[in-house]
Amino acid sequence: MSTLEQSSPATSPLAGVFVHPTAIVDEGATIGPETRIWHFGHISSGAKIGARCSLGQNVFVARGVSVGNGVKIQNNVSLYEGVDIADDVFLGPSCVFTNVHNPRAFVERKHEYRRTHVARGASIGANAVIVCGHSVGRYAFVGAGAVVTRDVPNFALVVGNPARRIGWVCRCGVRLPAGDAPFCSACEARYIVSPEGCRPALEEEGP
């Protein structure tokens, strides 16, 4: 990764990183090659962003936040301290992360931040809310507008408020049919569903 050495509202010459002229990258932020930061973004000192990421308009990344490789963050998303985003995650427009469970304007709780982890390949729909202290599993799919108040299992499809699981999804994002041994109609990957959850039938079909 390359570290931007100073705040610069310009295209970075380092490792092919693109920073739109209206965006701000603070000194001490670390950004991987081929990442693009678009209009009005703000990347704080101490934030770490991987390679080949795309950060849309008005995206904020706080200090201490880690974003993996190949992540797509759509417009109007803020990643606060305590949020950890793994590789190949999709964050839909205006989805919301929190980091304090019981906020009050007049009570200081910065020492009480709860961590939130979004695992590899997961997708979070537009306007969804991820309440702090929970994890979204690998290749899970959180529907638009859902409010996540508990951990989301790997490959789970969750919707509603509070979010509930209504099915399973393939690694490629297509909903799987019901059954103990479903296969994807799009990519033909096969899965095993049990009381423990959903997993690929073959190791090579997904990590």
Task: Spell out the blueprint of helices and strands.
Blueprint lengths: L1 E2 L14 E2 L4 E2 L4 E2 L4 E2 L4 E2 L4 E2 L4 E2 L4 E2 L4 E2 L4 E2 L4 E2 L3 E3 L4 E2 L4 E2 L18 E3 L4 E2 L4 E2 L4 E2 L4 E2 L4 E2 L7 E4 L4 E5 L22 E4 L2 E4 L7
Parallel strand pairs: 2-5, 3-6, 4-7, 5-8, 6-9, 7-10, 8-11, 9-12, 10-13, 11-14, 13-16, 14-17, 15-18, 16-19, 17-20, 18-21, 20-22
Antiparallel strand pairs: 1-4, 22-23, 24-25
Q: What do you see in this structure?
A:
The protein has 207 residues and is mainly beta. The protein is built from no helices and 25 strands. A hairpin with a 4-residue loop joins strand 22 and strand 23. The chain is globular and about 50 Å long. It starts with a strand and ends in a 7-residue tail after the last strand.
